[in-house]
Amino acid sequence: MRVQQRFLVLVLMMLLCSTAHAFDYVKMKPLRETKPPTIKDCRKADPLVVPMRTSGAHIVPLFGNGYDLETGKDSLFKKEGLNIRLMLENSIVKQLENYMSCKSPFMAGTQGMINAVADVAEADPRTRMVAVYQHAWSNGGDALVVRDRIKTPADLSGSVIVTQAYGPHLEYLTRVLSDAERSVKEKGGTWKTPEILYTEALLGFSDHTPGLAFFEDDQVDAAFMVKPDAMLLTSGGKIGTGAEGSVKGAHILLSTKSASRLISEIYVVRRDFFEAERDTVKKFVQALFKAEEVVRENVLKLIVDWEAVARHLLDDPGAIREAENLWTDIETVGMKGNVDWVNPSKNRSFQSINNEIQNALTSMGLMKKAYAFQVAKWDYGGMSGDLFDQRRASLPGFDENMTGKVVDRMKKSGELEKETLFEFNIHFKPNQRDFSETEYKEEFERVIELSSTYAGAVLTIEGHSDPLNYLRQKAKGAPQHQLRSIRQSAKNLSINRAISVRDSIIQFADERGVTLDESQFVTVGYGVTEPKTGICGGDPCPPKTEAEWLSNMRVNFRMVQVEAEASVFTPLNTW
Fold it and tell me: Fewer CB within 10 A of the terminal residue: the chain, N end or C end?
């Protein structure tokens, strides 16, 4: 048996360990604990084998190759002097085998998947990974499905969660749990580490997948899966009825439509090949930039060969609708996105995402240590010639006329709490109107991180006012018109505070080279109507201590899902 085959057998044997649950889960151990395949030196290859995954991001290289696995004579890759053989491979473990033996010097995956194999790839100088290209962000194609007992991310404390071993949802899992844990602790609660279970495969219900595990094992509280599986289990993205393959009460807690900067799809290449064939790798990336630009235009012109996409990415030329959905469920980043991605000072750069993932995977024992991956030091902004690539970073992502109305309607209907992902407060002093970064630096940084990561969710900034003056005047017998005036003044003050906080955050971010989408923020002033001390007989409850008095002087931040509101969020990949 070949060394590479033995490696795969060992990995599969390692995975086939069951738990006491009603479903046979696999055990995800670090790949360093298996015997890796023998490393072979990389040489110039003709054709150059490049992996693809079943992702809308890989429509771009498929188009660049002439909608075929072998480079077409009139394709963009051919015009760049490239001869590419595309190979569909969704398993990062199998990609790793091909990478180590240099059957292909590339790996394609999410940054979580790439980090999961880093202990093996980084162990030899020849096979260390060089990050060369960011394809896209998942934007609706992945979902966290939960049972009816899970209402918010905070409810994941102590839960049982399923995801694919070495799969694309590792960064999704670790980031959501990290944010949920912080939210619980900030409110004085206790966080219990969830039990994480793993499946061997990812897609559908005919294999060993998260969707099948969720369906068969009622001990599972939550599962990370692809959108089509989530839609089936939740009766079309609503609440599962228990009929037609759904699970009663199942619903999507959070999809990457809201968490649209969590899953980053990339290409890495072996260091020895990169150093020996730098021009070839650079031409490949330049061709990807051009292909991505044309694909976006062709989608709008309705001239994409969806049958070829379905044949090569889904292994079913008749799956036209599913192929189209692959594209709508991702957001390609193009040239400008890669400029930001390779800049370590940017909020969701390759380095910042890697740091986040590596901290999580090392704490889970799935990585031996953190690695400082190499990034191609190219002038990405100058690689694309005259391409027009002004991305939505310079355009409003939300309809500002609608977001405020939607938030107000959700508040009145009681849906706002239900659709809140995370929330936290900052407090201010009596009569305070300005909010400086000196005092609120940590809170401002958190707002920037949340708004950048959950870029498809609205962030409400809710101002509240101290009700003590109102209560004193009422106790003195002030007339109703005077009390109404006091309440209105308090409301005006609270909205002005919310606006002041928003402007301070945007300025704080701008000074650090981070561009926030101002349309993502909704400012609200509640005045004295929602004091921390509660409501007593229709009026604010009088504070009994100085601490209670100060607790009412706050600005509340709330990440709110609005993805069900199609009129609010600007469609992606349509600009």
Answer: N
Structure tokens at 281: 């790798």
- Quick: pLDDT tens for 237-250: 999 999 999 999 99
State the pLDDT at residue 468.
85
In this structure, is the dihedral angle defined by the CA atoms of residues 209, 215, 219 and 225, taken in order, positive or negative? Answer: positive
Task: Please list, in sequence order, all residues whose beta carbon lies within 8 angstroms of the beta carbon of residue 252, skipping any fewer than 6 positions away.
Answer: 143, 144, 145, 146, 230, 234, 237
Number of Cβ within 10 Å of residue 296's Cβ equals 18
pLDDT in tens, 392-401: 445 567 877 7
3-state SS assignment for residue 356: helix
pLDDT at 12: 43
Any residues with CB less than 8 A from the CB of 321 and at least 6 apart, and which? none
Q: What is the 3-state secondary structure (H, E, C) of 268-304?
A: EEEHHHHHHCHHHHHHHHHHHHHHHHHHHHHHHHCCC
Which residue, among 129, 157, 146, 329, has the nearest Cα to 228 in the 3D structure? 329
**Of 270, 308, 302, 253, which Cα lies nearest the Cα of 63?**
308
- Percentage, residues of the chain above pLDDT 70: 92
**322 burial class (0-12, 13-18, 19+ CB within 10 angstroms)?**
middle
- Cα separation of 280 and 44, whole Å? 9
148-177: per-residue pLDDT in tens? Answer: 999 999 999 999 999 999 999 999 999 999
Note whether 281 and 45 are within 8 A (CB): no
Compute φ and ψ for 243, nearest 5 degrees: -105, 160
Whether 131 contacts 166, CB under 8 Å: no
How many CA atoms are closer than 13 Å to the CA of 107, on its beta-carbon side? 30
How many CB atoms are located within 10 Å of the residue 279 CB? 9
Angle at 439 between CA 433 and CA 444, to 5 degrees: 90
Rounded distance, CA 502 to CA 496, Å? 10
Structure tokens at 187: 């409110």
19 band by pLDDT with thresholds 50, 70 and 90: very low
Share above pLDDT 90 across residues of the chain, in percent, rounded to a whole number: 62
**Position 14 confidence tier, pLDDT thresholds 50, 70, 90:** very low
- The dihedral over CA atoms of 450, 451, 454, 457, expressed in degrees to the nearest 10, equals 130
**What was the pLDDT predicted at 387?**
63
Distance (Å, rounded) from C-alpha 280 to C-alpha 288?
12
The reply to whether the predicted model has a pTM over 0.70 is yes
Crossing angle (nearest 10°) for helices 480-511 and 468-475 = 170
Separation of alpha carbons 7 and 94, rounded Å:
9
Structure tokens at 105: 């010097």
